[in-house]
């Protein structure tokens, strides 16, 4: 069995009051009792994810980060409602158990869901895990299949019609993320003005396809079956899910995807094992996705450029908190270098684009 993703000791400054958490969960989730153990999953840069064990019950608790947060980010209620509405139609959602808006418990809203125990791929394969080239390609194919399954869900039947406004979606995204970047920019950050102007100028027409979009779909947000690592058993981190153009979702996903022949400096910001032998290239992912969705994707430059920019905004928002001393997590200090590299990647893409 390959290494299962496991939690570790809670980081300093991000501790929870175990007795308060236990009292609330025991009172509101039927059938749980016993001692409580709280640990933390160390990866991720946004919402905080904890392992909570009470007796024999293993759960995941999600709460916002400490410090300043963007107004529309970290909405625990919305993330809980996404899981609740989507799970009957998309089997990869974890089972949501409880939402709490009583901030006396831990100073912020939070929700609890069942734990999906499995393998999560991060920058490098975990110890004891390996894939042949054929298996790596098959896993990429399965990764694409699950995204196509999500984009094929009837969001109205799932009760998610009010989770987004499809009309004008791309325009709102470009304008909204541009505003967020300017708000979060620190003196040491690049200005991204050329990228934002290009995105505003090159926006595609309204998409004929509207779907649920995850908005952070990547290998470290999917859970693999420990007994069969080519099987995806879960998709995590639904905090940015909405309704809109599915190609925007694919562009955001591929912004994380480093190809083997990308410039060496881009490999420094690699977060996923997409350079392993057999892994598909970004171009191959787009081609296979389009074929399975039954759509034409002639011009993908806009979507990938937006993906680079959006990822830079997320990194800059997190770095802003570190820069202003609102978090002591040293991982955030290096994000400013990723922001600069993402601007360079976006500008290079623009310079080569025929849009």
Report on this structure.
With 355 residues, the protein is of the alpha+beta class. The chain has two domains: 97 residues, Phosphorylase Kinase, domain 1; 220 residues, Aminoglycoside 3'-phosphotransferase, Chain: A, domain 2 (Alpha-Beta Complex), CATH 3.90.1200.10. 36% of the residues lie in helices and 13% in strands. It contains nine helices and nine strands. The strands form three sheets. It has a five-stranded antiparallel beta sheet with strand order 1-2-3-5-4, with helices on both faces. The protein has a two-stranded antiparallel sheet with strand order 6-9. A hairpin with a 2-residue loop joins strand 2 and strand 3. 36% of the residues are buried. About 1% of the residues have low confidence.
Could you give a quick summary of the protein structure above?
This protein has 355 residues and is an alpha+beta fold. It has helices at 18-28, 76-86, 133-151, 169-184, 193-201, 246-254, 282-293, 301-323, 335-352; strands spanning 36-40, 48-54, 57-63, 96-100, 110-114, 211-213, 222-225, 228-235, 242-244.
Structural features:
two-stranded antiparallel ribbon, 9 strands, about 350 residues, Aminoglycoside 3'-phosphotransferase, Chain: A, domain 2, alpha+beta, Phosphorylase Kinase, domain 1
Topology summary:
Elements: H1 18-28, E1 36-40, E2 48-54, E3 57-63, H2 76-86, E4 96-100, E5 110-114, H3 133-151, H4 169-184, H5 193-201, E6 211-213, E7 222-225, E8 228-235, E9 242-244, H6 246-254, H7 282-293, H8 301-323, H9 335-352
Antiparallel strand pairs: 1-2, 2-3, 3-5, 4-5, 6-9, 7-8
Helix pairs in contact: 3-7, 4-8, 6-8, 8-9
């Amino acid at each position: 069995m390959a290494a299962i993703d496991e939690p570790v000791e809670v980081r300093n400054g991000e501790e929870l009051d175990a007795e308060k958490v236990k009292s609330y969960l025991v009172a509101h989730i039927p059938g749980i009792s016993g001692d409580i153990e709280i640990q933390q999953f160390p990866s991720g840069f946004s919402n905080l994810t904890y392992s909570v064990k009470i007796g024999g019950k293993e759960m995941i608790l999600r709460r916002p980060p400490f410090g300043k947060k963007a107004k529309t980010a970290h909405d625990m209620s919305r993330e809980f409602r996404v899981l609740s509405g989507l799970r009957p139609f998309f089997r990869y959602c974890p089972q949501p158990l409880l939402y709490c808006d009583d901030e006396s418990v831990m100073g912020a809203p939070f929700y609890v869901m069942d734990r999906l125990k499995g393998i999560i791929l991060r920058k490098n394969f975990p110890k004891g895990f390996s894939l042949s080239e054929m298996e790596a390609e098959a896993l990429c194919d399965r990764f694409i299949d699950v995204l196509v399954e999500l984009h094929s869900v009837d969001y109205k039947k799932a009760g998610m019609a009010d989770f987004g406004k499809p009309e004008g979606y791309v325009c709102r995204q470009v304008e909204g993320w541009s505003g967020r970047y300017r708000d979060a920019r620190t003196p040491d950050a690049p200005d991204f003005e050329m990228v934002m102007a290009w995105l505003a100028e090159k926006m595609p027409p309204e998409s004929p396809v509207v779907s649920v979009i995850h908005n952070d779909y990547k290998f470290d947000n999917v859970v693999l079956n420990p007994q069969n690592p080519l099987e995806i058993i879960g998709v995590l981190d639904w905090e940015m899910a909405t309704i809109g153009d599915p190609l925007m979702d694919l562009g955001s996903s591929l912004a994380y995807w480093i190809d083997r022949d990308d410039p060496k400096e881009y490999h420094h910001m690699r977060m996923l094992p997409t350079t392993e032998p057999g892994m598909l290239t970004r171009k191959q992912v787009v081609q296979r996705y389009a074929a399975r969705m039954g759509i034409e994707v002639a011009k993908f430059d806009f979507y990938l450029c937006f993906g680079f920019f959006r990822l830079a905004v997320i990194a800059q928002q997190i770095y802003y908190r570190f820069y202003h001393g609102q978090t002591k997590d040293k991982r955030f200090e290096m994000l400013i270098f990723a922001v600069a590299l993402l601007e360079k990647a976006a500008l290079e893409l623009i310079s080569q684009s025929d849009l």
